[in-house]
Design brief:
Order of helices and strands of chain A: HHHHEHHEEEH
Helix content of chain A: 40-55%
Number of strands of chain A: 4
Distance between the termini of chain B: 65 Å
Oligomer: heterodimer
Structural class of chain B: alpha/beta
Largest sheet of chain B: 5 strands, mixed
Shape of chain A: elongated
Distance between the termini of chain A: 37 Å
Number of helices of chain B: 23
CATH class of the largest domain in chain B: Alpha Beta
Largest sheet of chain A: 4 strands, mixed
CATH superfamily of the largest domain in chain B: NADH-ubiquinone oxidoreductase 51kDa subunit
Number of domains of chain B: 5
Strand order of the largest sheet of chain B: 10-9-13-11-12
């Protein structure tokens, strides 16, 4: 078990603080996993084992929870997470074409992360901004009322950093 | 409290926020300061106004000037003209809010708002959701005070029962009964929970209430806690709703500070506190037993009922679980009396329902109408009809659990029972409009894809059955459908409905069954004629070059990635249907609109 090393010591300390807050309370696992993912970017096996020991929950249970929910990830995501809303309102207004265009422009499959670690492309659930359909989110930025031809310019902005 | 001569209300709902309302607020503040009128004009960030289509929205009172699609660069003009000189900036106003004589219409006379009745949304777009004082100024926490000092739990239950309120989250179970069951359940510890895991695609009512009026939910849950005998509540909210989470967090902290949550509320011996729990992207957690499993920290898998949550819920204790919109009705019922709600709606469905209008409709947004309003009124009067002069094809209600309603049922008065009778359901209130360009087989496939992905996998009818249905739909959409496929879909669908463990599986076949019921001819066309009349199913399409329009420029041939287009100068070009991959590149490239798909 590789666990805590020098480089990630601070991160584990931060996680420990969160865990301490939840000890003795009911149902601590979900909030702790949210925090752990925020700190580490993903829920690696080491992180799961650490939480297992601290909360006294079998690691198999934690793995079960971490893989059940779509927002938890075991592998790190790209620097820019592109989410294409596939809610009904966006879908009937052509979000599939937007998603295809993004996959083409970035030369990647939906659900993957580019080799340079820059982009992760995902089809997401309804983001609730149906008035702007079809929309995409890149990290916290929202782009709405899109047409496939808008994609090139938007992606270029992030490629340049 | 300061007195201001003008108020600038800027919508801070997710829709307007996404299109830059935070910048607009910042710009208003700096411009107002630059003109030295910051003591006269107050800028308020409110919840959703509802008319998301024309956002970002700014309303200036006392005139009630409704500015639409505002950009930060429009702000200096509004400040210098309207706020300083008192001249409304007409060219920035929402066009439907101007009378023929160029005066401004009152907001409730604008067609979008005319037929609406706002109970659950009454404070959305009116108050600053991050300021508890504004909620209190609009009778906030008055119902809690009345309940704690004047009413017994039995009286509260009786009030809710008489009002006829039914759960707004889906199935429409009578709310008063639910409260009574939890009240009567034996237990040393009880919980109150709020289902804010609004997962239906195209539905954002609950999000808007949480963002626009979070205290209404907190007040109602506290009333519920007093009534059923609980001292702890949980709000389970989607992690995908960051603004709602932020405003709820602020609201809970403010309520604690004011002694409206915590120990000895309003000086009584009743104590109650609330905690937020975030979902993590699992649609099934909207199902009540799955939601509770998730709050407890497990996989969000449903379990059989009974025992119902009222008997054995969170952490094995009796639990009252209602959805956001249901709670938002409670304080108003307490204050106005049960007869008031009784007077609104239809015989078996009382009050109002919030719908999220989306898809092919002019006024995309959030509307709240009395139960019994017809679909036609919602779509054509409130919603402003279908854009681009297209023909209405169907309205989808109830999300992945609901169905598609065709033209012949447009005049059905909307309530729980009428929607179920025509093969759909109220669901949480998503209402997505589809026009002639939408293929019903494709829409059914879209929803099935959703349920296949979101099925938790616990029970086989849902896990395997929905996958098999999706396989059949894919086959039909790809032009490989055979006689008998429709009947197989129907048989599978009925089986899944009967045999699934929870509401997700029991309702998953609805989108398929309802589209077969009303659009069987479209399915048959896909299977027999290999034709998709809406032009959506790619495999069934063919691209053609119209001879009379083709100018033989050759651009299409250059654009074709698989060299399937050939031609000579002064001769119309031709597409080789054998090798064409139907990518549509030629059609996009053609400057003369000479290429069509059919």
């Amino acid at each position: 078990m590789s666990e805590v090393t020098l480089e990630n010591k601070e991160k584990f300390e931060e996680l420990q603080k969160e865990i301490d807050q939840w000890k003795g309370k009911e149902g601590p696992l979900m909030p702790v996993l949210h925090k752990a993912q925020e700190i580490f970017g993903c829920l690696s096996l080491d992180v799961q084992k650490y939480i297992s020991k601290e909360l006294d929950i079998p690691v198999s249970d934690i793995y079960g929870v971490a893989t059940f929910y779509s927002q938890f990830t075991l592998k790190p995501k790209g620097k820019y997470k592109i989410g294409v809303c596939m809610g009904t309102a966006c879908y009937v207004k052509g979000s599939q074409a937007i998603l295809n265009e993004l996959a083409k422009e970035l030369d990647m499959k939906v659900g993957d992360t580019t080799d340079d670690g820059l982009f992760t492309l995902e089809a997401t659930r309804c983001l609730g901004a149906c008035g702007l359909a079809p929309i995409i989110m890149i990290n916290d930025d929202v782009y709405g009322r899109l047409k496939p031809e808008d994609i090139k310019e938007i992606v270029a902005k992030y490629k340049e950093g | 409290m300061e007195l201001y001569r003008s108020h600038v209300l800027v919508c801070g709902g997710t829709g307007c926020h996404s299109s830059g309302s935070a910048d607009i607020i910042g710009r208003f503040n700096s411009e107002i300061k630059a003109h030295g009128i910051e003591k006269e004009v107050q800028v308020v960030q409110t919840g959703c106004f509802g008319l998301c289509e024309v956002g970002p929205i700014v309303i200036v009172y006392p005139e009630g000037a409704f500015y639409s699609r505002i950009k930060a660069d429009d702000v200096p003009e509004i400040v210098s003209e309207h706020l300083v000189k008192g001249r409304v900036v007409k060219h920035l106003l929402y066009s439907h809010s101007i009378e023929e004589d160029e005066s401004i219409k009152a907001l409730d006379e604008v067609p979008f708002y005319q037929k609406q009745k706002r109970i659950a949304l009454r404070n959305c777009g009116v108050i600053d959701p991050e300021n508890i004082d504004e909620y209190i100024a609009f009778d906030g926490y008055k119902a809690l005070g009345k309940v704690l000092t004047e009413m017994t739990p039995e009286e509260v239950i009786e009030t809710i029962k008489v009002s006829g309120l039914r759960g707004r989250g889906g199935a429409g179970f009578p709310t008063g009964l639910k409260w009574e069951f939890t009240y009567k359940a034996k237990g040393d510890k009880k919980y109150v929970a709020c289902n804010a895991d609004e997962g239906d695609p195209g539905a954002f009512m609950d999000r808007s209430i949480l963002e626009g009026d979070p205290h209404a939910v907190i007040e109602a849950m506290t009333i519920a806690g007093y009534t059923v005998g609980a001292d702890q509540g949980y709000i389970y909210v989607r992690a995908e709703y960051p603004i709602a989470v932020k405003r709820l967090t602020i609201a809970i902290a403010q309520a604690r500070q004011y002694g409206l949550l915590g120990k000895n509320i309003l000086g009584t011996d009743f104590s109650f506190d609330l905690e937020l729990r975030l979902g993590a992207g699992a649609f099934v957690c909207g199902e009540e037993t799955a939601l509770m499993a998730s709050v407890e920290g497990g996989r969000g898998e449903p379990r059989p009922r009974p025992p119902f949550p009222a008997v054995k819920g969170l952490f094995g204790k009796p639990t009252l679980l209602n959805n956001v919109e249901t709670y938002a009705n409670i304080p108003q019922i307490i204050l106005n009396g049960p007869e008031w709600l009784q007077s609104i709606g239809t015989e078996k469905s009382k009050g109002t329902k919030v719908f999220a209008l989306g898809g092919k409709i002019n006024n995309t947004g959030l509307v709240e109408v009395p139960m019994g309003t017809t679909l036609r009124e919602i779509i054509y009067e409130v919603g402003g009809g279908i854009p681009g002069g297209k023909k209405f094809k169907a309205a989808q209600t109830g999300g992945p659990s609901g169905g598609c309603i065709p033209t012949e049922h447009l005049d059905t008065p909307i309530d729980y029972d009428s929607l179920t009778a025509i093969g759909s359901m109220m669901g949480s209130g998503g209402l997505v409009v589809m026009d002639e360009d939408n293929c019903m087989v494709d829409i059914a496939r879209f929803f099935l894809e959703f349920t296949v992905e979101e099925s938790c996998g616990k029970c086989p009818p849902c896990r395997i059955g929905t996958k098999r249905m999706l396989d059949l739909l894919n086959k039909i959409a790809e032009g490989k459908g055979e006689e008998g496929d429709i009947e197989k879909l129907e048989e599978l669908g009925q089986g899944i409905k009967i045999a699934s463990l929870c509401g997700l599986g029991q309702s998953a076949p609805n989108p398929v069954l309802s589209t077969i019921r009303y659009f069987r001819d479209e399915y048959e066309e896909h299977i027999r004629d290999k034709k998709c009349r809406a032009g959506v199913c790619q495999a069934l399409l063919q691209y053609f070059i119209l001879e009379d329009k083709c100018r033989s420029c050759g651009l299409c041939a250059k654009a074709c990635p698989v060299n399937s287009i050939s031609g000579e100068r002064k001769q119309p070009y031709v597409i080789n249907q054998e090798t064409c991959i139907k990518c549509g590149a030629c059609m996009e490239r053609c400057p003369f609109d000479a290429i069509i798909k059919r």
